[in-house]
Write a structure and sequence with these properties.
Layout: E1 2-7, E2 10-15, H1 25-41, E3 47-52, E4 56-58, H2 63-67, H3 72-94, E5 100-104, E6 107-109, H4 111-117, E7 121-125, E8 131-132, H5 135-138, H6 144-153, H7 157-165, H8 172-177, E9 183-185, H9 188-203, H10 209-219, H11 221-226
Length: 240
């Protein structure tokens, strides 16, 4: 599951427990609820930091829940349900009226990797943890919004090829070199500390949240279009 804590103007969304933090329908519903709370409580200076307990940031969708359907058709139906249910999570992060930072404490795979990329900034540790899209190894195709997010957030064509077509596992320092993450740090604790510093720096700018969200959406038109996030014009300046 996940928890939400507010410290000053910083929101902390934490995937709790020592497991793999897989996205079951229950966890997905919890994420949607928490992100709705964050949006409703946003003020100028707010920022969101997302992290997790234990060895994993998230190992993606809960495939064991899908397989528990007892038949291949039932498993496919359950997987499709999770894929479609997760769209609002990505949509919520891309339209949240504040800066967002993923503090990756460990492994981030498949939907867990996508979840991290849905944030504005991504920090991870360089000693442990990898970024990994497991679909090619599992024999699964990618949902449209997964590939759209990858094209929007990973500028290197060769990096996207290796991640999606080779199932390459990317560690912290390599992720920084290829521009997938913004910085790599020594430990899970130092990743969160760096995320807090960044969140405070960004929050000090006191940006208008609605304007911030619309500029973000304009920056990633492909994935926002796939997710059905329509752009709009917002003029909040008192100087006009």
């Amino acid at each position: 599951m996940c928890t939400l804590e507010k410290r000053g103007d910083l929101f902390f969304l934490t995937l709790t427990g020592d497991g793999e933090h897989c996205f079951s329908p229950t966890v997905i519903d919890s994420l949607i609820s928490v992100l709705s709370q964050v949006k409703s409580q946003a003020v100028r200076g707010s920022a969101l930091i997302t992290t997790a307990h234990g060895k994993f940031f998230s190992n993606g969708f809960d495939l064991s829940w899908a397989q528990a359907a007892g038949s291949s058709s039932g498993a496919r139906e359950r997987l499709h349900h999770m894929v479609e249910s997760f769209r609002p999570v990505a949509s919520a992060l891309l339209s949240l009226p504040m800066p967002t930072i993923a503090a990756i404490n460990g492994h981030a795979a498949a939907a867990g990797f996508l979840f991290a990329l849905s944030h504005d900034y991504v920090l991870m540790r360089h000693d442990r943890g990898v970024l990994y899209m497991s679909e090619v190894d599992l024999g699964l195709t990618f949902p449209d919004y997964f590939t759209a997010m990858m094209r929007s957030k990973i500028g290197s064509v060769s990096a996207r090829r290796d991640i999606l077509l080779r199932g390459m596992k990317i560690k912290g320092e390599e992720a920084v070199r290829t521009g997938i993450v913004d910085a790599a740090h020594e430990s899970a604790e130092s990743v969160v500390e760096a995320a807090v510093r960044l969140g405070e720096q960004l929050g000090q700018r006191k940006w208008n949240g609605e304007v911030y969200a619309e500029i973000r959406k304009s920056l990633y038109p492909e994935v926002c279009g796939v997710l059905g996030l329509a752009p709009k014009t917002v003029i909040a300046s008192s100087k006009l």
